[in-house]
Every structure is written in C-alpha cells, then in structure tokens.
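quick one before i forget lol
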Amino acid sequence: MSIEFAPFLPWPILAALAIAAALLSTLSLRRGIRGAGLRTVALAALLMALANPLLMQEDREQLSTVVPIVVDRSQSQAMAGRQEQTDSALAGLQDRFARFPRIETRIVEVSDDPDTETPSTRLFSALASATSDVPPGRIGGAVFLTDGQIHDLPGVNQELTIDAPMHGLITGQPEEFDRRVQVVRAPRFGIVGEEQQMTLRVFDDGRSTGEVADVTVRMNGEEIATLQAAPGADTPFSFTVPRGGGNVMEFSVAEVPGEVTAVNNRAVHVIDGIRQNLRVLLVSGEPHAGERAWRNLLKSDASVDLVHFTILRPPEKQDGTPINELSLIAFPTRELFVEKIEDFDLIIFDRYTHRNVLPILYYDYIAQYVQNGGALLIAAGPEHAGDNSIAATPLSQILPAEPTGDVHNAGFYPRLSEDGQKHPVTRGLDGAGQEPPAWGRWFRSIDVAAPQGETVMLADQGRPLLVLNREAEGRVAMLLSDHGWLWARGFEGGGPHVSLYRRIAHWLMKEPDLEEEALTARAVGRTLEATRQTIGDDPGPATITYPSGRSETVPLVEAGPGLYRFERRMEETGLFEVTNGEFSTLVHVGTVDAPEFKAMISTEETLAPYAEKTKGLVTRVSDGQNLSLPDILPVRGEVRVQDRNRMVIRLTDETVLRGINTIPLFAGFGGLSILLFAVAAMWWREGR
C-alpha cells in the first residue's frame, strides 16, 4: 500500500501557491492575527485537495514454482526393465507433486534424435530448452529420471543451467554388470592376401569378473579365430583380407550370466579388400580372329598383370629350323603350372587344345589349383570338340560340361536362360530385354552334354553357351563359342562383350557383388537397406534383429529378376542382424563409436557431483524389487542443507501484478467535508 499524487494543477503552480500560503500563514501568526492557525489549516487542506493524493493498493497473485522432470527415453533405457521402472516412477512423481498446488511440473521427454547418426543422451540440453522461458527465480529444482548414462554433462565448476537443487532418480538395478567388445583400431582398406593388424578390447562395466574372455572372430560369416582377451586390455589380432570388395568382420564375446544386455557383446568392422596387381594367365591355342578379344580387355585394366602365351610351335612340329635361329619363346610350363601356379588369380584357356605342350600331370595340377580356390575359364572353339580336347585330360574332373563332339555352325542370337536373367553375371546386360536381343549374332557353338552348375546363356535351339560352376573352393566358367569377338568388332551392331567378359572374370575371382546367392545390407543415414540375390524362387521375408533384442519380420519386394530388397528407416541405432533362410548379415546403423553404445549399466556417479553442488539428492527408484521414491520437501528461501532422504524444492516468492486499486483521499464528500470544516472553524473564530 502506498500514496501517490494526481494534481489538478501543474506542480510549479501548486508550489507557487504553497509558497504564498506559507508566507501568508507565517505573517499572520507573527502578527497574532486572530484565527491565523485556522487559516493555515484551511490553506493546507485546500492545497492538499488540489494535489489530489491517492491511496494505491496493488493486487498481486503468487506465482507457482516450476519443477522440470527430465525423462530419459534413450536406447539404453529400453532394456533390463528400465522402461517399466521409468513409467512407474514418472506416474509416482506426478502423483506426489500434485499434492502441492503451488508446484508446477514440466515433463520433458528426451529421446534419440531420429536424424542423427551419432545418438547420445542429452538431458542437460533438454533441461535448458525446457526452462528457457522461465525466470530463474521460479525454478524450484529439477528431477532427472534416467539410468545415469548422460553425455552432455557440463563441467561441475561451470555455471549450471538452473540455480536450484538437482535430483537424480536412477533406474536399473544396484550393482549392475555388463560386458562389451569394441574395435579400438582397424584399417578401412587392405590388400587382398596380405596380413593386416587391428586391435580390440573387452570391457567389464560395473565390476570386473577377473576372467579372460573368449572372443570369436568371423570373416564374412565364417569363423576364422578365437582370441583370449583380458578385460580392459588391448588385444591385437592379425588377419588376411580374403577377397576384394567389402569384408565384414564380426567380433563376439560370450554372454556372462547376470549382465545387463548381450546386444553390445558383438562388434562389427567392414574392411574393403583391394586387389593389387591381379595376375591373369592367358594361354591361347591356334591363332584365330578373336584371339585378341580377351587380351585387349585384360590389358585395358590397369590393375591386371597379364601373362599371355600363344602356342605357335608345339613340340611335334619339326621343320628342320635350328633352335638357335628360332625367335619364339619356349613355353615355361614348369615355372607357370608347377612353381608359380598359386600366384595367379585366374587362368584362361582360349581355344586351347592338348598338343603335348603341357604334360598330362600338369592338367592335374591345374585341377588341384581350382579345387584349392583358383579360377579357370575355358573359351572353347572347334578344338574342344576334337580328339585332342582338354576335356580328355585330367582337367575333365573339374569341367562342368563334357563335349559331345558336335560343332554347330549356324547364325543365332545369344540369349539369357531363365537362370541367366537372374544371375548377376548376365542380369541386366544391355539389349537382353528385347526379343530378339538387341545385339549381333554369333555363328558357332560347341555342343556339350547336360552341364553342371548354372547355364546362364543359350545358343541356337537352347544349347548351353555360358556355363558357370563352383568346384570345391574354386570356380570354373565355360564359354562354348569362339565368336564373342564379333561383338567387339561391332558386327550387326555388336554387343555388350566388355560387360560380359568383365563380369565373368570378376565372378571367377569371387567378387562379392556377383554372388548369385547372397544377402547384403548397408546403412544410408538412419535407413537400413537389404538386398537378397538369388537364382531361385521368392526367398520369403527377412527378419531384422534390433540392437535392443527385439525382432521384426519384413517382406522382401522383388526389384528385378533374382533381386529382392527392402528399405526401412530405423528408430534405433546400433548393430542390426538381417537374416533370410540360411543367410545372415550384420550392419551398423549410425556411428560405430556413438556415445549411446559405449556403456549400458545404470550409475549414480554421473549426477552425484551436481546433486552435491546444488544440495540435491541422487537415489535409485528401485531397491532391486520394489519401487521406492523419495519424499518431497518444499522450503522457502535459500537451500542451505542437503537432505539425504528427501527431494528439497525451493518455493518461489515471485508474484504477478493483476491490478491496482486507487482511493482518492481528498476527493468527493470526504475532501469537501474537511474544507467546509476548516472554513467554518475559521469563520467562527473570527466572528467572536
């Protein structure tokens, strides 16, 4: 309550009148004029009425105390029953705060950013955003409902978001334990066949078991090693990159009884294999028009080291020319097919026939080379159907088709078989989608009996033209015509000889993208894309296993012949497993070393320093069995003492002005009565 003035005349005029009245009153009092005192009172009352004093009274309303409750909904909260604890604790907090009408709670739900590839729990940032419109004096405290895994902690000595008690209610169970494995250092690229070094580490969070962990290492789904890793120590590992393209390395540690979750017991690393100087041995038989087709293709690839021999003079050919006058290079059979055969990634026989250049035993060496993982391509001509065909040597044990002895000389359009339309070697070749195909004709094919493997291209009357087959650990391809060079020369418009030849060679050298039966997956941002290649029927749905452990079945949609896909945007991030039948693959969505996956145990240690600084409380919401929430203690003024059993909330003293009530002191009948009384008294005194 206060008094203010709203004068009817300007203050300078009132001041002049007050001075004149003061002089007149002083003169009257000194001279002893009768009624001088009453005249002074009357003048003072008149001046007061002209000044118009007002009695002011403010109408204020008490403001509520704001208490934000920051609820952690990150991925680490979705396991080990923490979600249920969070929901129950939140309901309990709301019920308890509802008993205090002057306390206003704000529920702040904090989940992973769906657009980030590096998920983390950012509770303090969410608290700052939620209280940005609230004056600091109105915030009575903050409650964090979390597992304690917070990744935007400010420095304890820095200025905090709020100047009020901070309380932490921790979900999870006391004394939790979790084991996880992490790739510490690993190369992104590696030369195929060369040894690479990497380092991994096993962590025991919460407590140490003191036990050495067995880490199983898989490369492209096949187990390659088992390591003994001491928790907390770096474990080196040496490996060899088996193939070109992406190679998926998986490290898994056995689940320990009682640990929080097993979803972080696996880690994955993708290393791209780079083939350095691919070594290809091309052996040409009798010279022919298409002899240079394979040579030109292989020589155009800078990553290929080509060794090419053309057999021009077999041993049985004798024309009397002295050896020292021959300019031909003797065929180094022993060096190539005995001593260094394992150095070659691919061997090509182009219209080659057995002419006693290679001893019979060497064909057996070639067969062993293929069975041990090598690659062989037979580009057959008429010789393959003759008596001296290499199919009549020990090489026959690995060839997928045996010649019948017939050679068909008739124009035909090479066509894709039903399997060829699905096989990645021939699928989508330019011009294959028309009938007849939009490429030139060939005019010769070698007839074979029922071939093994996959016949992906057909000659006239449905005869096999291109046969692909796996033999033990190696691969064999047979191109049953020597007229592919017509495409290279542009005959009748030519054809996709470069694509076809290159795909055949890369399939033989086990390029992952050309596997006819494969399941691959990749992550593009937060989107998981999976592709299933097959030359069979519809492979059925795929199953996605999420980092949280839950599974989901999704349909594979046909994207082309032999090609099925699905795309799904993931709310979670981490290591996903996609399975379809007997095939499975792993893919990591989001950054591999994201903070959200580094630790999964619940902890009170992260919030304890902030609670200590602000006189707050950190406690668990469960004692292992029952839900237990602390009581609420509202206090006024500064919080000086930390309560170990109750959450202290500082009540605000701030108010909001709703209106002002004004009462004129010398207006109306009250002011008129005072003036009349003063004048009447003065008149009465002077009349005596």
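fyi The first helix runs from residue 11 to 31.
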